[in-house]
Amino acid sequence: MTDTVAAPRPTIAVIGGDGIGPEVVAEGVKVLKAAAGADAFEYVAYDLGAERWQRTGEVLPDSVLAELAGVDAIILGAVGAAPGSTAIPSGLLERGLLLKLRFAFDHYVNLRPSKLYPGVVTPLSDAVVARGPIDFTVVREGTEGLYAGVGGSLARGTSAEVANEVSVNTARGVERVVRDAFERAMRRRKKVTLVHKHNVLVNAGGLWNRIFTEIAAQYPDVTTDYLHVDATMIMLVQDPQRFDVIVTDNLFGDIITDLAAAVTGGIGLAASANINPTGAFPSMFEPVHGSAPDIAGQGIADPTATISSMALLLDHLGRPAEAAAIERAVDADVAQRGTAARSTSQIGDAIAARVAG
Amino acid sequence: MTDTVAAPRPTIAVIGGDGIGPEVVAEGVKVLKAAAGADAFEYVAYDLGAERWQRTGEVLPDSVLAELAGVDAIILGAVGAAPGSTAIPSGLLERGLLLKLRFAFDHYVNLRPSKLYPGVVTPLSDAVVARGPIDFTVVREGTEGLYAGVGGSLARGTSAEVANEVSVNTARGVERVVRDAFERAMRRRKKVTLVHKHNVLVNAGGLWNRIFTEIAAQYPDVTTDYLHVDATMIMLVQDPQRFDVIVTDNLFGDIITDLAAAVTGGIGLAASANINPTGAFPSMFEPVHGSAPDIAGQGIADPTATISSMALLLDHLGRPAEAAAIERAVDADVAQRGTAARSTSQIGDAIAARVAG
Ligand SMILES: CC(C)[C@H](C(=O)O)[C@@H](O)C(=O)O
Ligand SMILES: CC(C)[C@H](C(=O)O)[C@@H](O)C(=O)O
């Protein structure tokens, strides 16, 4: 018998967060274990979110941020109080935790796939659905634009107030995310649509256009087109089949992906990944939906979006077969969903069983 | 016999513009004459748009702007080249003509009603449509925000480029449009939804929130709520019935109203008014759709959106009965539309006949 030193297991930070966050994350981890093995990863839970802030006044202490920088991936449930809540200042947790992590860990690819699973209820008409399969992905820039936190108010609180928000766009920032979109398109149906509003936002739009055109020239196999963000709205409900990869800025991406989620069956199903493709910092995986305080604690939240985000996590960690197993299990589960309500953990159990079986 | 001096007739400036613009405007004027009488207004045609720019290099000469300032209302078809066209710099006409007029004439209420007419094909499912009538209006701020033209680029054209766009929001600008929205709600179903993204855009969002709350207190009969712009996307396709009046900023309004148009049967039907409620400058009436160069010159564009905009024009000029006559005629025409294609002028004729008859 020889002494063996076990290879260190990758560490995954688990931030349940607020509202339904912890409930859906528990199911995500359940399915992750079913796919990768119970001992594949070390899981470290982090207690962050509204409850901690109310108890301690801390959102994301520097020491915790430093610790998180060393993990291999982060799972995030949801953060944030209900809009209109007065207990927590608007956006405090979103900016202090979620956006802070996206920016600190340079998650410049905010990846949001949208696929209409067979059998899923969509708000789109039969005629639109009959046009063909809906399967596209949005590559949303994650570290610039109007999310930069640049802006301010003059004469705040008075009738003379002027409040500004600045969208900051850099050539480097646009270049790296557009390139990522083209790389993804090469592994898909080889089409990239740039969405912007360059007829009005001439500076930012001009930059996006220029870089997009430059990179497109390097991918002669990829078809490209351009849509204004307003026209994109129309296409997403009239002809979503036209999209393969959409690349766009941070705010347009935020808006587009909620509509994309809605037309493909709702944000209960929409997965997302905040990726740092360089590996310099851990990437973060989270459902598109929020903390949904209205249904928290009842065990009725749909964990599917979080579970699908686990497939993105496995893919990112170089485990495509396990990722595919989760995707197949989700496909199969979703396809046979009737109207009978299942609890959060029943859905997690069912998908975990399919992954294992 | 006494000498009578005819009261001067109100003057309406007619800017057909580009692409399908002149075609749909001709039908709008036809129906306007049917409703108000052939001699009710004096019509003055203005030759502005891509063709003039290509011929003369002029977009909107100061002398023309000064003349337009003196008319009673403006009808605008559409301006702008096809996206991706290289003949005309991107946005030149949009900014130099359309936005120039909105800003010069202080059109701070960009009004965009959305109504799903019975019988109209919508991309929404039967289940969503069955929830009830869809009938809401968006009050889009028209003179501030990211449309202010504030921004710029550093190191333009290089790999070090930084391109900024600034959203400028003033208390005065927000106050006047929010108040207008509440006034409209009082004449409708008494509900106003503020749409913004105040969890991220804290400065602008904070200002909008504060003013909205202040004004809401003055309208105790009006129910209010707030939605983030991303969540609004979901509601517009899952539950558009929840909306009565939406008030929002310039860019969010641009995005929302294209989606609103799409879910209520397409931009072929979506009317809009750029209103200066003070009367200091003429208001401007235009379809939401663009110049659609791909179908221009074929007589197949749907003029309904322009015709409905004429109802908004008559309303604005204090002729509600004539406005209602156009609305009824459009309702009736749209309700009996089958799949048989009619030409642009056939649709105009049919609606004009209903107005007259
Ligand atoms: C919670 C909020 C800050 C966040 C965003 O705007 O990015 C969310 O809407 C999302 O899309 O992940
Ligand atoms: C053409 C363009 C400048 C314009 C806008 O962005 O306002 C259009 O999309 C609209 O909605 O009227």
From TrEMBL, chains A, B:
Domain of life: Bacteria
PROSITE patterns attached to this UniProt entry: IDH_IMDH
Keyword Oxidoreductase part of the UniProt annotation: yes
Coiled-coil intervals, chain numbering: none
Cofactor: Mn(2+); Mg(2+)
Molecular function GO labels: magnesium ion binding; NAD binding; oxidoreductase activity, acting on the CH-OH group of donors, NAD or NADP as acceptor
InterPro entries, per database record: ICDH/IPMDH, IsoCit/isopropylmalate_DH_CS, IsoPropMal-DH-like_dom
Keywords: Manganese, Metal-binding, NAD, Oxidoreductase
Pfam family, one: Iso_dh
Residues of the Isopropylmalate dehydrogenase-like domain: 11-351
UniProt entry tagged with the keyword Metal-binding: yes
NCBIfam families, per database record: PRK03437.1
Record-given protein name: 3-isopropylmalate dehydrogenase
Higher taxonomy: Bacteria, Bacillati, Actinomycetota, Actinomycetes, Propionibacteriales
